[in-house]
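Appendix B. Chain record.
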Amino acid sequence: MKFGTYVFEPKKAEGFDFHLFRVKPEVGRRLPPVSDMYSNVAIFGDNVTARNHPDWISQSPLGPAWRTNDNYNVRWDILCHTQPEHRAEQLDYIEDVARHSPGVWLNSIHFADHGHCTCPRCKELWKKSGLSWLEWRRKEVTDYMREVSERVRDRAKKKFVIGVLPDPVSSYERFGINFDDLAPLTDEFLVVMFSKNYATPWYWEMLTRGFKKLFKDVKLNIALYVFGPGDNPSEVPAPSELVTLSVRAGRAGVDGILYLTDKASQIWDFQKAVVDRVELRQKLKTYGCQEVLDFFASWEKVVE
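Structure tokens predicted for this chain:
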């Protein structure tokens, strides 16, 4: 099992196996990749591009995929998946990022949600395909991921990880994702399990087991939310919840756990809080994943 940081700045915290830097998160801002941190890129969730090209936004019978559309659970503006200029630009951008970092981990690879996209271009492409609506969307997502995979793995010769949302049941109907299609195209999967409360750890453990089964031989990483940009400290997950969930995800067979913070210094704060939970870590020794507890114990030297 490997453990990583997942941060919005190009700084590393001690005590981890690897580091993932959000060079292009869904807000759309871009920062240069760095040579000793993996690069995280969100493709179709892109507030900056949506603001500059509002006609590129994904469309549906329930309205466009602006983050203000409460018919959908979208936290950022999402572009049409078939927008040719954006797709082409992102291919070149991702390949360049891969060449300047150890590899690329993707987010926002798919259609915005169920019912998307019904722009004139998408409807025309669907009709020409001769496929059902859902199968056409599946093909669009898979074909584009194949192009991205070729850029990162074949051309740049770097590690490639596809990120998906935590829906193991209806990702096909909602997003056009077929996990079996994507498995040969990626080195590993990342499931983003962000929440500001992990008080019900069995739920997240269940999701971990479900994805582990779906992904078969492809490694499963999960990302947990510690502290995001602009967060109120009273409204983020308690360290005890993150410790407990990490152990339970570990016993469910997860291959990697990443911890998201805005800044690297907040990782250190989290490490200190985990080290201080001596009684909880002792209690969790009976939960069946000593490997995670040993990892947490290694932080005692980091925060001393």
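Further analysis of this model is presented in Appendix C.
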